[in-house]
Amino acid sequence: MHYEESGKKLPVRQFDVVVAGAGTAGVVAAVAAARTGAKIALVEVKGYPGGVVVEGGTALHSFYNLWKGFPGVEKRQVVRGIAQEIVDRLAEREGTSGHAEMLKGYDYDSVCTAIDTELYKLVAFEMLEEAGVHIFMNTMLTGAVTDGSQIQAVTVESRSGREAFFAPAFVDCTGYGDLAAHAGAEFTEPNDYAVANSIGVGGVSMEKYHEFLTAHGTVTEYSEGRRSGKDGRIVRLSGHLMPSEFTAGAGAIGMAVVTTTVHDDYFMFIKLNFQMPTSPTNRDEATKAELELRRRQVKAVELFRKHVPGCEKAFIARTSPSLCIRRGRLITCDYDISLDDVLEGRHFDDDVMAYGFHDCAPSLQIKDGGTYGIPLASLRVTGIDNLLVAGMMITADHDAHMSTRNTVCCMGQGQAVGTAAALCAKLGCATRDLPYPQLRTALQRGGVYFEK
Ligand SMILES: Cc1cc2nc3c(=O)[nH]c(=O)nc-3n(C[C@H](O)[C@H](O)[C@H](O)COP(=O)(O)OP(=O)(O)OC[C@H]3O[C@@H](n4cnc5c(N)ncnc54)[C@H](O)[C@@H]3O)c2cc1C
Known about the structure:
This protein is of the alpha+beta class. The chain contains eleven helices and 22 strands. The protein has two domains: 12-192 and 328-445, 3-Layer(bba) Sandwich (FAD/NAD(P)-binding domain), CATH 3.50.50.60; 195-319, no CATH class. The protein has helices at 24-34, 81-92, 117-131, 178-182, 206-215, 244-252, 283-307, 339-344, 398-404, 407-427, 436-445, and strands at 12-14, 17-20, 40-43, 96-104, 111-115, 134-136, 140-147, 150-158, 161-166, 169-172, 187-188, 195-202, 219-227, 230-239, 255-256, 259-260, 266-274, 315-319, 330-331, 351-355, 372-375, 387-389. The protein has a five-stranded parallel sheet with strand order 6-3-2-10-22. α1 packs parallel to α3 (117-131). The protein is globular and about 65 Å long. Residues 20-26, 43-46, 51-53, 56-61, 140-141, 173-176, 178, 196, 198, 271, 324-326, 391-392, 405-407, 410 line the site of flavin-adenine dinucleotide (FAD).
């Protein structure tokens, strides 16, 4: 059965670029676009910016190349620009560990950049405001008005009603690929990852947890950085946990016990995972997953309380407002980054950034601790003239995606698409006709690093 909605006249607003989604990539995209002087609309369904970077993760992977795993390889900061500015702003508020060198587990990542998730939201909000972005929080992007291969406008909905935002250029940073899907882009839904809802756990002692893991000889990841205003404190910790009752319990609820923190008595992220039977775009299955994950959160804290010294008074201090996805829709773009491109450290004629981290290191890692390039073509939506995407919705190959999906890569992609979309709007050209030298110059001015 269907109910036929009657047509409505919507209020119209005009912008140079509309960015959908103020998450990991979208914040950076909107700031980058606004800094060119363009008039930017940023549409976000939640009441704060940040997305999965403040809800799902452990640490920001990674600003650096994997130098520690390769004796003789030079230490290089690979992602800079606006992503680094966010970390600098967090540091001013004691909201980050800084780029703390990994002392154990450095064949995975050479640094641990841990964040205060709440301060990240504020810092991102302030940067958007300072850049002059027109920010629309609690506003959902609900549709696209298209004319052939061109998007004319998007429809958005909030408690202020339905509106249409017109613009010559659009950026989809919704993670789910909502704008691309509404605009008729090709996509698939691989459902190749578990969904998660991570918790912040209070009333715990990182030091006692460390002693416990050390006593069992099972510390696998360890890093010291800035915590509660003091340097040289534990900021990242992971290990195979004993006793077996804990390990079995953790396995049953999909709990990953790696944690980071920037505060005393707090684990910033403990992740609970759940493999859905369908793609997370299925509302009814997602509802079941939301409930299951909340049950798992309580069990996780019970396990810590019962088995881990220093955690007897553990409690849930933060949850994500809804489940976090690692992949929703995979949007078809003009180029698809392959695993070979990543592992061989391949660069392209239309590179918009360099990146040097793989989530499966040391099993899969970029050749010689180097970098590979993200080409603009991998962010350009096939069949649509004025839409760019950034974030978790690119890269078909699961193992290649295990690199491109990481936060710092998404942030770098955000700077690229924001800058490119604003240039397209200014020049009045389609994304495929944007002169690359102009984009490259603008990105270099914005502090983007391109070296192999
Ligand atoms: C559990 C988990 C743990 C992870 N751990 C790490 C880690 O330790 N380190 C790391 O580097 N990476 C990690 N990742 C990966 C990384 O966090 C994500 O891939 C990355 O943050 C995705 O960024 P994004 O910009 O694509 O999406 P998001 O950050 O999710 O941004 C999407 C934004 O769009 C908004 N939105 C969605 N639909 C609409 C709509 N229709 N209208 C308006 N707004 C909309 C959302 O509310 C959100 O704010 C993890 C991911 C998960 C899920």
